[in-house]
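JOB MANIFEST
job_type = single_chain_structure
chain_count = 1
residues = 191
[input]
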Amino acid sequence: MEKKKMRRRALSAAFPYTIPIFAGFWFLGLAYGIYMNVSGFSAWYPMFMSMLIFGGSLEFVAVTMLLSSFAPLQTLIMTLMIQARHLFYGLSMLDKFKGTGWKKPYLIFGMCDETFSINYTAKIPEHVDKGWFMFFVTLLNQIYWVSGATLGGILGSLLSFDTEGLDFVMTAMLVVIFLEQWLKEKSITPR
């Protein structure tokens, strides 16, 4: 019973941190699912790709890579270039992931920009288990992304409208994230 209570406390503490991510991920996920569909892929593709890749930038680029000629070396290089920032995220999370047990592989897999930002900076209450807190942040963010992408894939097959410019969504999101972080800083001059 105590373990259930511990998990419930962690979920309750993590959920409010993920609400802004929910709004962004649903919008981006919908755009991604629709983009996949209008590019000729069925609704299954955005659902499974968002579950297995869980890297928004890479998923948007993957649409082009899947539609291009077979080029495994170029695909590998592009994938590494896009996702390389996660190496630095991972290094900075090594101490935070200590003691998380079986959750550690999922925390590593599910580390996207937004999850990293929350798990790295969140003030986790003392009565909340940090491993479960980070697990629920990661899980909720992935649920938001997968459900948005799946819904977008389904809506894309039902709706017919001009989707020109839809592939710009990721660029716009990264600009917004950058500006929000910049505005949070007290000083933007080098130290």
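[summary]
The chain has a mean pLDDT of 86.
The radius of gyration is 18 Å.
exit_status = 0
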